[in-house]
Amino acid sequence: MLLTSKLPDIGTTIFTVMSKMALDHNAINLGQGFPDFNADPRLLELVNEAMLAGHNQYPYMPGVDSLREVIRDKVSSLYKRNYNKDTEITVTSGATEAIMASVLSIVNTGDEVIVIEPNYDSYVPAIRLAGGVPVRVSMDPPSNLDDTFHVNWDRVSAAVTKKTKLIMVNFPHNPTGAVLTDSDLNELEKIIAGTDILLLSDEVYEHIIFTAQGHLSLASRPKLAERSFVISSFGKTTHTTGWKIGYCCAPEALTKELRKIHQFLVFTVPSPLQHALANYTSDSSTYLNLPEFYKTKRDRLATGLSRTRFKPYACPGTFFMLADYSAISDMPEAEFAMWLTKEHGVTVIPVSAFYASPDAIEANHGLVRFCFAKTDDTLDRAIERLMQI
Q: Which part of the chain is the Aminotransferase class I/classII large domain (predicted)?
C-alpha cells in the first residue's frame, strides 16, 4: 500500500524513546516530565464522588460550567483579565489538544508561524498539519550558571513578514526554565503593534515559578490578551499529567473558531475529572502553594548535582533543570543522554531534541534536562548514581 505521510520526518518523540530506555536499562527516569508521586488524596476522592453522583456521561462540549467558572475566577484574580466563561473559556484534552486546536483554527496554507527554539515538540507538527510554515527563531543560550536562555526579540522582529499569522511563546519555558519579564512583554507588544498577528501562549507551568514577581501571563496585558490563545494545564498543577485536562482562554472570536476544531478532535473531556477539578481548584491554595513545594525539590536536585561533575544552571520556573556535562564528556547531547542511561542508570533529556536539527552544532550546547518532579528518594538515588561518574 502506497501512503504519502503528512509528517514524513516525524518519528517517536524523544520523551517516549528515553522513557523506554529507562525501563529497558532499569534507570531512574529524570527525563520525561511527570511526577512519580500521586495526586492529593482529596482530589482522588472528589473524582470518585463525582462518578458516584452520576457525572459519567458526555459533559457540555466546552467544559462543565463549574470548572469554567473556577478558571474564570482564577485568571481574573491572578492576571486581572475577565474572560467570559461561556464564550471565552474552553476545557480541553490537555494543553497539547488546546495547542493543536488553536493552530488548526486560524492557520491556513502558506501562513507563517514563528516558533521560539528550543521548543516543545508538538508545535511544529501542528503548524504543518494546518498547512502553515514554521519559522524558527533561536533563543540566546545562558552566558553563565546564574543565567538562563533568553528570547532575542530583535531576531523575532526580523523574522516577521507579511505572511506571519501567529507567534507561539511558552513561558515558564520548557525545556530551559526561562521566564518572562516585563521587558519581554513590552518587546512583544512592539512587534505586533500595527499588525494582525495572533499569539499562542503555552503557560502550563504558570504555577511552578520561583521569581519574586511570579508569572507574567499574556492575559495580564490587554494589548496581548485581545489577540491571544492563553493555554494552561491542570496536569502540571495537580500532579495528574495522565488525566490530560487543560484549558484555553481566548477572545470570543478566537474561541468560536477553536471550538469548531475541538469538537471534532475530542468533542469533550472526561466528566468526573472536570467536576472533581472544579471542586478542588476552587481552593486557591492548591495552586498558590506549588512554588514552595517545587522550590524545595529544585534546591534538592541543584545541591545534589553540585556534588557531581554536572554543573546545574539557574531554574526560575518549571520543574526542569538544565545542567552542563562538559566536565564529563564532549559527546553530542543525544548520545550523552543515551550513554548516561545505559552506563549509569539515570535518564535525562537532551536539550538538542527541542531543535529542528538536533545534530547541528547550534543545537548542542552540552546541556541535558533533568526533571525534579520526583520524590526525595528518587532524586537522592539518582544523585548517588551520578556521583559515581
A: 27-386
**Considering the domain 42-283, what is its CATH architecture?**
3-Layer(aba) Sandwich (3.40)
Contact between 129 and 104 under an 8 Å Cβ cutoff? The reply is yes
Q: Give the three cell numbers for residue 24.
A: 529497558
Give the per-residue pLDDT at 74: 98
CB atoms within 10 A of CB 242: 11
Helix (H, G, I), strand (E, B) or coil at 125: helix
Q: Which helix (H) or strand (E) holds 346?
A: strand 346-347
Query: Which CATH architecture does the domain made up of 14-39+288-386 adopt?
Result: Alpha-Beta Complex (3.90)
Contact 28, 22 (CB under 8 A): yes
CB 351 within 8 A of CB 325: no
**What is the rounded distance in angstroms from the CA atom of residue 61 to the CA atom of residue 256?**
12
Q: 321: which strand partners? A: 370
Of the candidates 81, 41, 166, the one whose C-alpha atom is nearest the C-alpha of residue 116 is 166
pLDDT grade for 236, boundaries at 50, 70 and 90:
very high
Q: What is the pLDDT of residues 127-179, one digit of tens each?
A: 999 999 999 999 999 999 999 999 999 999 999 999 999 999 999 999 999 99
Q: What is the DSSP string of 127-187?
A: HHHTT-EEEEEEPBPPSSTT---B--HHHHHHH--TTEEEEEEESS-TTT-----HHHHHH
pLDDT confidence of residue 387: 98
pLDDT digits (tens, 9 = 90+) for 29-88: 999 889 999 999 999 999 999 999 999 999 999 999 999 999 999 999 999 999 999 999
The domains of the chain are located at 14-39+288-386, 42-283
In sequence order, the 6+-apart residues with CB closer than 8 A to the CB of 142 are: 148, 149, 150, 313, 314
- How much is the pLDDT for 15? 81
Q: How much is the pLDDT for 196?
A: 98
The answer, as to whether pTM is greater than 0.85, is yes
Map residue 41 onto helix, strand or coil: helix
Report CA torsion sign: 244, 245, 246, 252: positive
Q: CB–CB of 115/168 below 8 Å?
A: yes
Return the closest-CA partner of residue 258 out of 65, 106, 71, 114. Answer: 106
Grid cell at residue 120: 516543545
Give the confidence band of 8 by pLDDT, cuts at 50, 70, 90: confident
